[in-house]
Amino acid sequence: MRITKIRATPVAVPYRTDETWAFGSRSGMVSVLVELDTDEGIVGLGEAAAYPSAEIVLSVLKSVERLVVGADPFRIEQLIQRIDVVGTWHHVKATSPAIAAVEAACWDIVGKACGQPLVNLFGGRFRDSVEFFYYVAAPDPDTVKAEGTRATAAGFTTCYLKVGSDSLDIDIERVAALRDGIGPHMNIRIDANEAWTAGTALRAVRAMLPYGLELVEQPVSGRNLQQLAYVRGRMDVPMLANEACWTRYDQLSVIHNGAADVLSVDNQMDGGLLNLKRSAGLCAAAGMTVLKHSLGELGVALAAATHVIAATPNFRHANQAYGALLSDDIVDGFGGGVDNYRDGCLDVPTGPGIGVALDPDRVARYARLYREHGDTEFSFQHPRALTTGLALPKH
Ligand SMILES: [Mg+2]
């Protein structure tokens, strides 16, 4: 079998409410849907987060086209090695989502050709469903509380809250409001996206301790592992590394420096589903648990990762997904909207390959939305981020 063509379609899907973090803001999500045609009629489906932008994803896809077209989709290791080495993409993390989408689409072809869901090709079902968090992206404490109540009603067990984009007092108010909304038993995970200094991080976590925190994600810079280890050693809450460990090479450094308790791993930032499995294996060897990070993704990329997570033992925490924020999706029964989740979990798809299919009407609708607004309201370069980004880090 040979790959005959790469087709790429950027789509923009609006959020229910804006997403704001320490360094940015956006009103929806852009993804690039990738379809690989083959000479045997099987079409492989993949998806790349538009990171850092859809234009860059499309450029990377164009640049690897001559390596991908003509390749055997079963020879995934060989194809990715050629892209890494011949294409020299091993130097560049931020352009990885396009390559990851090609890799996932190859796996979709393999699964469809074999008549097997991906979970059966990645080790089989260690678990039948995969847990995800509820993303609380609300600016004021009253709305944070209401979102917490919505998360509880929908059956989620972990809420995720961004901190670090406002004063510490406001962040503490938000955490208190969230605990008020969810009651005593649900997990609260906070993510500062590197915005704090070591001193602020320690003060913040101490002040938030009465409200109960599950994990503190990347409170300080990911580029100074000694500082991360210093903060970790003085906190009474487990530390989750994110910006410190985008790739397996970074993860190895975090492990060697004792700079985290839990690592987030990301197939989009590290070149594919095989590397997601390898990341988890690296951490398992170090006695560490992992969870999947998300740059923001729709149902295709989410379903692809769900297969690998289901087949890998040390994914022991609620993983990242945007179901609570997204108003819709481009596949049925998976991804955007809390109605797709049962007790915060997604069932592993049972169809061959990734096991989801694009809805042509919604793809057309959101492709149009991308063409009209994608590069502004829905991108990582949202206008509000452009006007506020220079002041950070500010604590
Ligand atoms: Mg993070």
Automatic annotation (TrEMBL):
Pfam families: MR_MLE_C (PF13378), MR_MLE_N (PF02746). Belongs to the mandelate racemase/muconate lactonizing enzyme family. Residues 141-238 form the Mandelate racemase/muconate lactonizing enzyme C-terminal domain. It comes from the Bacteria. This is Mandelate racemase/muconate lactonizing protein. GO terms for biological process: amino acid catabolic process. CDD domains: MR_like. GO terms for molecular function: metal ion binding. Keywords: Metal-binding. SUPFAM superfamilies: Enolase C-terminal domain-like (SSF51604), Enolase N-terminal domain-like (SSF54826).
